[in-house]
Amino acid sequence: MAIGLDLFYGSKFRRTIQDYCNQLGWKIQDIDYVDDSTLVLKFPIDSVNIQTIFISREKELLEFSIKSGFYFPSLDEIPNKLSTFLLSDNLTSKVGFWCLEKVGTRQTLTVMHNAELSLINPKSFRSIILALVKKCEELHNLHLRR
């Protein structure tokens, strides 16, 4: 295993993410394991709202994901304007991509990003998370304009 990659394995995974957040001055509400390779990170984005980010270790990658909060009973229920916006964003985006994720019997829009473990440091961690949060904010703003 390359130098530094072991920071994302075993008990070091949670500690590394917590250390990155501390170095960035982020006030974390909660950080905990969902399973052996997935953490859920929660932090306040203002006085009312909490942002939830899932970070999964997949071999040599970290997968970051944020569920948008938009749920649809079926694929047919997703508005065309929304689908077009998300596909257009995927064409031009360097960080993050939109996808559908099945949650129970419903579909949700999720923004994700995959990054090689060897490229993750506090600066890249910050950039990825801020880019994904911004994408969710843009989606919510689009929805409010409807």
What does this structure look like?
The protein has 146 residues and is an alpha+beta fold. It has a single domain (5-145), classed as Yope Regulator, Chain: A (2-Layer Sandwich). It contains three helices and six strands. The protein has a six-stranded antiparallel sheet with strand order 1-2-3-4-6-5. Strand 3 (50-58) and strand 4 (61-72) form a beta hairpin. The longest helix has 24 residues, at 122-145. The radius of gyration is 16 Å and the shape is globular. The protein starts with 11 loop residues before the first helix and ends with a helix. The mean pLDDT is 90.
- Main pleated sheet: 6 strands, antiparallel
Distance between the termini: 50 Å
Shape: globular
User: How much strand?
Assistant: 35-45%
Overall radius of gyration: 16 Å
How many H/I helices?
A: 3
The average pLDDT score comes to: 90
- Described by its quaternary structure, the protein is single chain
Structural class of the helix and strand makeup? alpha+beta
- Give the neighbour order of strands across the main sheet: 1-2-3-4-6-5
Topology:
Elements: H1 12-24, E1 30-35, E2 38-44, E3 50-58, E4 61-72, H2 80-92, E5 97-103, E6 106-116, H3 122-145
Antiparallel strand pairs: 1-2, 2-3, 3-4, 4-6, 5-6
Write a concise keyword list for the protein shown above.
single chain, 146 residues, alpha+beta, Yope Regulator, Chain: A
Short description:
The protein is α+β, with helices and mostly antiparallel strands.
